[in-house]
Amino acid sequence: QKEVEQNSGPLSVPEGAIASLNCTYSDRGSQSFFWYRQYSGKSPELIMFIYSNGDKEDGRFTAQLNKASQYVSLLIRDSQPSDSATYLCAVRLSGNTPLVFGKGTRLSVIA
Amino acid sequence: DAGVIQSPRHEVTEMGQEVTLRCKPISGHDYLFWYRQTMMRGLELLIYFNNNVPIDDSGMPEDRFSAKMPNASFSTLKIQPSEPRDSAVYFCASSLHTPGGTEAFFGQGTRLTVV
Fold this sequence. Notes:
The complex is a heterodimer of chains A (111) and B (115).
Chain A: E1 4-6, E2 11-14, E3 19-25, E4 32-38, E5 45-50, E6 54-58, E7 61-66, E8 71-76, E9 85-92, E10 100-101, E11 105-110
Parallel strand pairs in A: 2-11
Antiparallel strand pairs in A: 1-3, 3-8, 4-5, 4-9, 6-7, 7-8, 9-10, 9-11
Chain B: E1 5-7, E2 10-13, E3 19-24, E4 31-38, E5 42-50, E6 53-56, E7 65-71, E8 74-79, E9 88-95, E10 105-106, E11 110-114
Parallel strand pairs in B: 2-11
Antiparallel strand pairs in B: 1-3, 3-8, 4-5, 4-9, 5-6, 7-8, 9-10, 9-11
């Protein structure tokens, strides 16, 4: 069974700090990795994706992938209260398969 | 494009009643997914379609659940009869196939409450 594991949180960080969100996955053949942000009462929205080992940066967000350790993370620099949300890690085995989601980590940025 | 459109946004129904949830995917997208989200189980895939054909319905919890996609612009998820444990937020999502895969775009969801 394909599993994606995340710490449910809440993860609390002060404004301006770096928030680090982590995700592990069970299927070693997984090829694509996504981070979605979900505000309370809203739908998930994509913020980052990564396919290759290493880091990928987009503004204040950095996704990190280590396929050998089956680990993907999301770093949020200069955290803002508006970043407070649940962050969902999603994994795809191949281009034709649907995303498998973790249960999400709730992030709270304290002003 | 207006994105993935779901209706209704909220549904309250009595146990035993039939419930129909509707979804219009993004135009041109060839994959459509139905997910259910609860606090306990997170976001679970129920069923997905490719070019209107159901590909995998192994996530459908029981025979009370059924889904159809009669054309590329419309899909329904039906629960008959509904039960209180079906209360959840149901999301429809669509995506466009590429060799590397793309993200799924989600609708706003239908919050279903069965009393």
